[in-house]
Amino acid sequence: MFALRPASPADRAALYRICLETADSGADATHLYRDPRLVGHIYAGPYLAFEPAFALVLEDGDGVGGYVLGALDTAAFEARLEREWWPALRERYPDPADVPLGARTPDERLAYLLHRPQRADPAVLAEYPSHLHIDLLPRAQGGGHGRRMLERLFAALRGAGSPGVHLGVGGSNTRAQGFYRHVGFQELARAPGGSLTLGLRL
Q1: 71: phi > 0 → left, psi -120 to 50 → alpha, else beta; which?
Q2: What is the pTM of this model?
Q3: pLDDT tens, 10-33?
């Protein structure tokens, strides 16, 4: 049986592990990265640190099996990361800008993002100012757990005054795309590389 509860600082290692084990379009990316913390530094750590009211974990007898992490005001969240999160990581991970794009390792591609974080499109933020990440290990998939996690997060965002939430999904991750559309997300934009931005009105 899985229980859904608020995340706590004690869950940080579990969130980082799940983030890595789902980072290859939903599959385990442990073999891709030399530094197992790097993915979590970008996609999990800052949410637990700065948006704990919108961080939930799914837990069973084997521990944490999934999470959903949200940011209420994406623009303010990005600004805070620029002030308080990225600087220390930039000191730890060198900027690989001098390495040709095709020659960069997976770690270097993420380090590049640390130095040049992706910014949300202001046109999207006008109606969908919040955003989220959700990841579930295989044992937690199915059974309606993902929908339950999202509904809990949607309620929290709605209660805090958000009119809409968005997320990004890789173009090759068709399973995730199907899930998001099933719970009500609609396509807002498609990047040249195939990644999608989906949004849902709250």
Answers
A1: beta
A2: 0.93
A3: 999 999 999 999 999 889 999 999
The rounded mean pLDDT for the chain is 95
Cβ distance 124 to 197 under 8 Å? yes
Alpha-carbon radius of gyration of the chain: 16
Nearest to 42 by CA among 89, 7, 76, 6: 89
State residue 137's pLDDT score: 96
Q: 117-151 pLDDT, tens per residue?
A: 999 999 999 999 999 999 999 999 988 999 999 99
Which structural domains are found in the chain, ordered by start? 3-201 (3.40.630.30)
Backbone angles phi, psi at 69, to 5 degrees: -125, 130
Residue located via tokens 């009119």:
163
Starting at the earlier edge strand, list the strands of the sheet with 55-60: 3-6, 55-60, 63-71, 130-136, 164-169, 196-201, 186-190
* CA gap 67, 23 in Å, rounded: 13
Residues near 179 by beta carbon (within 8 Å), at least 6 away in sequence: 146
